[in-house]
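Standup notes, structure subgroup. Blocker cleared on the glutamic acid input:
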Amino acid sequence: MSVRVRFAPSPTGLLHVGALRTVVFNDLFAKRHQGTLILRIEDTDRTRYNPESEAEFIETLKWVGIEFHEGPHVGGDFGPYRQSERKEAGIYTPFVEELLAKGAAYEAFETPEELEQMREFQRINKMPTGYFGGDWRDATPEQVAAAKAEGKPCVIRLKIPRNTAIVGEDVVRGKLEWDSNTVDDPVIIKADGMPTYHFAAMVDDHLMQITHVFRGEEWISSYPKHIALFDAFGWDKPVFVHCPVIVGNDGKKLSKRHGATRVLDYKYDGFLPDALKNFVALIGWNPGDDREIMAPDELASAFHLEGIQASPGKFDMEKLKWMNGVGIRSLDRDSLISTVSELVKDPEILSYYAGKEPEDPAPKISADEYHRAISTLASALDNDSAFAEQCVVLEQERVQTLADFGPATEFFLVEELSYDEKAVEKWFGEPHVRKLLDDLAGFVSGKSEVSVEECEGFVKGWAAENGFDKIGPVVHPTRVALSGKTSGPGLFDLMSCLGPDRIAKRIARAKELLR
Ligand code: GLU
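Run returned:
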C-alpha cells in the first residue's frame, strides 16, 4: 500500500512552528516512501474560521518549499479538500446515518444551559466532566421524536462503548489504553449541522486513504474517541504518530520570547527554507546519530519513525541561527547574490521591519536599523551592483541570516560613515596615525583600483618602514578610518573592495577626527 499522509490545519490564524514541524515530518515521511502528501483544510469550526488563514498557510508552505500532491490549491482525486465543501457536497451524511442506524451514535437535545448545569454538578461532585450519556444516550425513539416535534436543536454524539478498555497504538509511545468510562461521548455533528473535527477528520482520513497520521501530542487525549469512531465503522485505522510537544530552550511552553513566531516572519528575518526545515526536523526527531546539518534529500532518506522521541523537543533559536549561517556559507557566489537580492528587494520586507513590535530582550540590531540597512543594500544592488555584490560576498563568512547582510554591508555603502567612538578615542590620538592616513591617501592616489595584494603590501610595508614590529597599530586605525568599526571582513579585502576613490574620501573625513 502506498503511503498517503496529510497535513490538516484548521484555518484559524497564522502558521506557527508546531504546525510547521508536523508538515515537515509528513513531507519527509512521504518523500522517504515515495508517498503522497495531501493538504486538507479543516474548516468546520466556523466560529474560529479566519478567511485569510488558508492563503497564509499556502504562501508560507510554498516559501518553505513543501510541495503538496493533492490539496485545495492543486486538486486531486480525493477532493474537495476543504471540509466545509465536503460537508456541502453531502460527503458526511451517509456516514452519520450509518452510525445512527447502527445505534453507534445518537441525537442529544440538551440546551447549552443544561450542559453547563451538568458540568457544574460534575465539578462539585468531583466527577469526570463531560457528556457520558445524559438523558439522551438511551432515550427511546418516542422521546427523540417528541423532542424533534418541539423543534429542539440537537447535536449528534458518538456512543462510546462503556465498561471496556479502548486500546490504541501510537508509533512513539507504543500501546495506549483508556478505561472507556472515562471517555465522554463526543459531538460528531453540531447543532448547525456541521461535523466536528473528531468526525470529519477521521471520516476523511478513511476516505482519503490516509496511511499515517502525524499530529501533535495534544491530540492523544482525543485519540480514544477517534479509535472508537473507526471501530464503530469497522474501518482499518491509519498508523498514528503523536509528535512530541515543542518547548523553549528553558523547558517552558514555547512562546515569542523563545523566538517562535509566525513562520512567514522567518522569511523576512532572513532564514533559508532548507535551514529552517533542517532545524524543525530535528525538534523531537533525530537520525540515530549525531548528524545535525542535513541536506533535504539526506533528511528524507534518514527519516525513520523510530527517530521520533516522546520527550519534549527543544526550540533553540541560537541553533537555528547557527544552522542558517552554515547554510549561507554553503551557497556559491551566484546563489548567494540571487538569494540576498531576492530577499532585500522583496516588496514586503520594509513594511515587515517598519511594523515589527519591540522585542524583549531588545535584539543587538533593532528593527529600525535593519529597515534602514536593508533598503540601503537593496538600492545599492540596483544602482552599483558590482560593488554591492562584492560587499555581500565579503560578509558571507560573518552573518547568520540573510537580513544581516543589510547591517553588515551598510558601512561599505553609506556616504557618511558613523564611527565607533571608543575606537576613535583609542586610535585617532596615536601620533603615527596622521602620517599613516596621509601615506595611504598617497598610495591610492591616481589609481582606479587596488588589489588585495597591493593593500597587504602597503600595510605591511608601512609598518616595517615606520618601525612597527607588528602590523596591529597600522591595521586597527586604518580599519577604523575606512569602516568606522573595529571588526569586519579582512582589512586587505575591505580596502580592495572599497577601492581608491572611497578610500580617499574616507581618509579625508577621518583626518577631521584626528586629535
Ligand atoms: N485540524 C487539526 C489542527 O489544526 C489537525 C489535527 C490532526 O492532524 O488530526 O490541529
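Discussed briefly. The chain has 22 helices and eleven strands.
Next: hand off to the docking folks.
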